[in-house]
Automatic annotation (TrEMBL):
<dbReference type="InterPro" id="IPR014729">
    <property type="entry name" value="Rossmann-like_a/b/a_fold"/>
</dbReference>
<feature type="domain" description="DUF218">
    <location>
        <begin position="37"/>
        <end position="194"/>
    </location>
</feature>
<dbReference type="GO" id="GO:0000270">
    <property type="term" value="P:peptidoglycan metabolic process"/>
</dbReference>
<dbReference type="GO" id="GO:0005886">
    <property type="term" value="C:plasma membrane"/>
</dbReference>
<dbReference type="Pfam" id="PF02698">
    <property type="entry name" value="DUF218"/>
</dbReference>
<dbReference type="GO" id="GO:0043164">
    <property type="term" value="P:Gram-negative-bacterium-type cell wall biogenesis"/>
</dbReference>
<dbReference type="InterPro" id="IPR051599">
    <property type="entry name" value="Cell_Envelope_Assoc"/>
</dbReference>
<dbReference type="InterPro" id="IPR003848">
    <property type="entry name" value="DUF218"/>
</dbReference>
<protein>
    <recommendedName>
        <fullName>DUF218 domain-containing protein</fullName>
    </recommendedName>
</protein>
Amino acid sequence: MMLTYLALLVLVGASLPAVVRSFLPPLPRRITGITPQAVVVLGAGRRQRKGRSSLNTRGLRRLKLAAELAHEHGLPLLVSGGGQPPKHDDEPTEADLMAEQALRRWPRLDVIKEFRSRNTWENACYSSELLADRGIDEVLLVSDRAHLPRALLCFQSQGVLAQAAWSKRLPKQEWLPSAGAISMVPEIWYEWLALVWYHARFL
């Protein structure tokens, strides 16, 4: 009986935005005085629908915010994501899919495609090379809130000064149970484990 009550308590806690927010990995200390010269958005994976690749929901959410910011501020948009090697030579990379979506809405955007990366570390390494070619070292970095601490550390390790930007997913009602809060719990635990691994391997 005690275990049942404990499991129920954990489930209730995991549904409360205030509780879930308190477990998010902390963002690195904000670097002041940055004047972004580009917007960088990191891919979140793709899915197959009727034999065709498309961006998943998280990737579309990230891209929407990034493209809006790039359009609003008149900045180039760097889309970063290669994913797994395509099954066919003509299969688009994740960066291709993101660029296509962004240009469909804002055809005059200056879009830079980074299509070699397979993880966050490679996102930072390959994107920093493309940014350096344009003399850019200050950016707005768009991803999910749980993922941004790891992403920011990776970009900073490559000499890129980045400000974080993300779409709000947790509702304002801190103590009202939310399915969205529950959906973030696995992401948060994954990111804590990934931070430990990245510090041991890369940072």
